[in-house]
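Long-time lurker, first post.

We've been arguing in lab meeting about whether flavin-adenine dinucleotide would sit comfortably in this protein at all. Half the group thinks yes, half thinks no, and nobody has a model to point at. So I'm putting the question to the forum: if I give you the sequence and the SMILES, can you give me back a predicted structure of the complex? Inputs are below. Any interpretation is welcome too.
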Amino acid sequence: MNRSDGLDRLRTSPASWDLIVVGGGATGIGVAVDAASRGHDVLLVEQSDFGKGTSSRSTKLIHGGVRYLQQGNIPLVMEALKERGILRGNAPHLVRDLPFVVPNYKWWEAPFYGIGMRVYDVLAGKYGFGKSKNLSKEETVARIPTIETEGLLGGVIYHDGQFDDARLLIHLAMTAVEQGATLVNYARVTELLKNAEGFVEGVRVLDEESGEELEARGRVVVNATGAFSDTIRRMDVSSARPIIQPSQGVHVVLDRSFLPGSAAIMVPHTDDGRVLFAIPWLDRVLIGTTDTPVDAPSLEPVPFPEEVDFILKHARRYLEKDPELGDVLSMFAGLRPLVAAEGAEDTAEISREHAVRVSDSGLLTIAGGKWTTYRKMAEDTVDVAETLGDLEPRDCVTRELNIHGFHRHAEKFGAWAEYGSDAPEIEALVGSEAGLEEQVHPRLPLRKGEVTWFARHEMARTVDDVLARRSRSLLLDARAAREAAPSVAAILAAELDRDDAWARAQEESFAEIARNYLPV
Ligand SMILES: Cc1cc2nc3c(=O)[nH]c(=O)nc-3n(C[C@H](O)[C@H](O)[C@H](O)COP(=O)(O)OP(=O)(O)OC[C@H]3O[C@@H](n4cnc5c(N)ncnc54)[C@H](O)[C@@H]3O)c2cc1C
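Top reply:
Settle the argument with this. Predicted structure of the protein with flavin-adenine dinucleotide, as tokens:
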């Protein structure tokens, strides 16, 4: 993972790509991994940082989707449960089993959800994570010590997968590079290039760091820009009918004391009929989410105050210790790239299934879906791309392709476990020089040596890349992250050969971003 190597390849191979992928989220990077591992030549360009869009802003669950079970969408649940199992096999260092408790306050909830979860187990089959069962009131309290006990009758426990979305994305990006793909971040597609017959044959790319304009030509251009898909579709046909209906989902992050213990809470029906999760994550508690339609996509969507109120109000119903606005350590919003169905008015009703579309001029768009199914989305996309671009058809190999960092017993690396097989090298770097083992802030676990690693090996280019995605500091404690920015900027400036003015500009731009993660 080296940006200047990627840029050099982009400059020197302007006409040789099999696939050009636009968008560096789970979908685009998944396509790059799939195509490169089949032996195709792949270029991927991302306008900002990898994962800057939705893919770092999810609920961080690798799940079948209990809500789709409620909706009776059995094929979608089965596909997702299968993908969940495949992903745990390919990235055991990042996907872990998380027990969820559905607390029961009404007599009918125990049999109703008990049976529902048994169906979930059956659908998972050999890909199951653990058996569900009904819990007594005492067992429920033992699992969730801070659960609201007034009126509590018992609970139902079931199992799903949890991960760190941005970390998996970076490890997938490293996998893509190891398979031969060329990836460049901060490279925005500004125009689609067409041949004399009007077919899409490439992209014009703006290097956001230097301002240089470049061209790349290839057999197939894949539009994997999530909530931004229609922007690229309109570069193809200016009157293209929108297919994406973006919907915003917000999470708030609280101190772990609100939900100690190792189980999460799943609330199947909030006031507006949606699902709400309270999840232990990286020594904090993550609560969400909402589903609010928005008009236009943005790289930094901002939570609406009423969304934060909604989450806190429901959290108070289920937790003994009532969270207030002042308890919120961070809050963040993401945009679901939902593919609009004719006549659907409520975004919660829109399918989470993915859609692969080819325009008359040959632009291939892959949109919708979810993190859990990124691999299947990529397989379907590359199958279509091979036909569309007249590429040699090759079998998909990602069902059994280890993802970078693969390690069956990463827990033995303790605090470094999420780095998987990179952990010993990172630990060695951190211990190699005085000062590198220092934390960037007393309330954040991030060490200075890790920032160095991110710059050298994971293509981190800005303070935001380090604090929001390579580490999750901004999500864990937005105030602490803002205070850590000068120290991170100084390390990056030294690593990337930038001057003091650059470091100061980075601090300011990060302070601007962090403002949206702070409720008060
Ligand atoms: C609140 C919320 C919670 C969710 N929780 C879960 C969950 O727990 N589990 C799950 O499985 N799924 C979950 N999802 C769904 C999942 O996160 C998304 O389906 C997935 O991340 C979408 O990935 P993507 O690559 O399509 O989009 P993105 O991650 O948004 O990536 C698109 C990328 O394209 C880039 N781009 C745009 N225009 C250009 C251009 N002109 N040139 C170059 N690049 C460009 C953008 O910068 C962006 O990085 C959740 C979604 C939301 C919103």
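For your lab meeting: The radius of gyration is 23 Å. The pocket of flavin-adenine dinucleotide is lined by residues 22-28, 45-48, 52-55, 57-61, 63, 188-189, 224-228, 231, 249, 289, 299, 334-337, 369-372 (CB under 6 Å). Whichever side wins, do check it experimentally.
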